[in-house]
Amino acid sequence: MSYVIALVDDDRNILTSVSIALQAEGFLTRVYTDGQTALKAFIDNPPDLGVFDIKMPQMDGMELLRRVREMGGPAGTMPVIFLTSKDDELDEALGLAMGADDYISKPFSQRLLIARIRALLRRQDLARGTGAAATDNGDEELPLIDRGRLVMDPARHKVLWDRKDVTLTVTEFLILEALAQRPGVVKSRNQLLDIAYQDDVYVDDRTIDSHIKRIRRKFRGVDPEFDAIETLYGVGYRFGEE
User: Is residue 230 classed as helix, strand or coil in its secondary structure?
Assistant: First the structure.
């Protein structure tokens, strides 16, 4: 299977060089020089993963991501990597808060970008129960995680809270899954990083805090009283026992 990667950046040199590098690795690429054009294309033909520059004219990467997440369906949950200005922590924090799965600062190594793309696609396959990561037996369904009010279906990347759909990104799904598999057991930030970022790619442990905040916010969208994810300050997080 050849994955389709959408590259959205107003710098044509970056689009060309990254596209060539990805194609050499067996990916298919689509390139867009502005967010508006990309968004229109995603409606009918969503890619498997998007790489968005944040600072673009007309529609920047933040607005593009917000509109994509509102679309729902395959486009709404596709992994997204943000390209940010060097050392711009505000961009990184905002991007993660809005639903990006990862970020990488310019100037960047193409090898690093490709490694992160592969990691996200593997996590997407794992969460959806597809590809080589699905199961040892391709015909066997991945078991449901049933924690009373919470039901997770890894094979379909589906999450229900009180029978209401909650849309999570791949990274969010894997973090919640790790917590929900063993209610009451504390997972440290480093343990959650190892689960959500399974490659030798450096990610600050504050990234987990941002993901947890987004997960909570999404659940509180269907249940304002949601408090199942507990914080143990200085230790980590756990899914509360029923």
Answer: strand
Q: Rg (Cα) of the chain, in Å, rounded?
A: 18
Task: Tell me if 169 sits within 8 A of 158, measured CB to CB.
Answer: no
User: What number of residues does the chain have?
Assistant: 242
Per-residue model confidence (pLDDT) at position 200? 52
- What CA–CA distance (Å, rounded) separates 35 from 62? 9
Query: Cis omega before residue 143 (within 30°)?
Result: no
Cα–Cα distance list, 88 to 7, 53, 84, 171, 234 (Å): 21, 13, 7, 22, 26
Say if residue 54's pLDDT is above 60: yes
Smallest CA-to-CA distance from 173 within 118, 100, 124 is with 124
CB 3 within 8 Å of CB 27: yes
What was the pLDDT predicted at 131?
52
Long-range contacts of 151-157 (CB under 8 A, 24+ apart): 152/176, 152/177, 152/180, 154/126, 154/127, 154/128, 154/129, 155/128, 155/129, 156/128, 156/129, 157/77, 157/124, 157/127, 157/128, 157/129
Name the token pair of 218.
């999404």
Using left for φ > 0, alpha for ψ between -120 and 50, and beta otherwise, residue 157 falls in: left
At 140, the amino acid letter reads: E
Confidence of residue 195 (pLDDT cuts 50, 70, 90): confident
pLDDT for res 122: 83
Q: What is the model's pLDDT at position 171? A: 82
First to last CA, the chain: 41
DSSP letter for 52, please: E
